[in-house]
Design brief:
This protein has 109 residues and is an all-alpha fold. It has helices spanning 5-29, 51-65, 86-108. Residues 12-97 form the Carrier domain.
């Protein structure tokens, strides 16, 4: 899929929200957390998220984006921890937020 300026802008906006929520969760669990968060950052290896903090981050993102359920299993599509990146979480939020918006618009029609 080619990246258009609108797609890039949307992805950057979603990344900033995801980054903010991840920083909050990371600092809650690791008081001295000061790592930079990039799209390529691993949720586990780089950010140090465990299963509990990952769930807390997902719940915060569901609330931030108005998503009913953000399926964590989709992050592991390749069956490999390498897919647990900030970028894959951003893409998952974009996909599911778009589905929620489409469903809401369909209910209003």
């Amino acid at each position: 899929m080619a990246s258009t300026p609108k797609n890039a802008s949307t992805r950057n906006s979603v990344f900033e929200i995801v980054r903010t929520q991840l920083l909050h969760v990371c600092r809650e669990h690791q008081r001295d957390f000061d790592a930079e968060i990039h799209l390529e950052s691993s949720l586990i290896a780089d950010l140090g998220l465990d299963s509990l903090s990952l769930v807390e981050a997902v719940v915060a993102l569901e609330q931030a984006f108005g998503i009913e359920r953000l399926p964590l299993e989709a992050l592991n599509e390749g069956g490999n921890e390498a897919y647990f990146t900030v970028g894959s979480l951003v893409d998952l939020c974009i996909r599911h937020a778009a589905v929620c918006v489409a469903a809401d618009e369909g209910m209003r029609a």
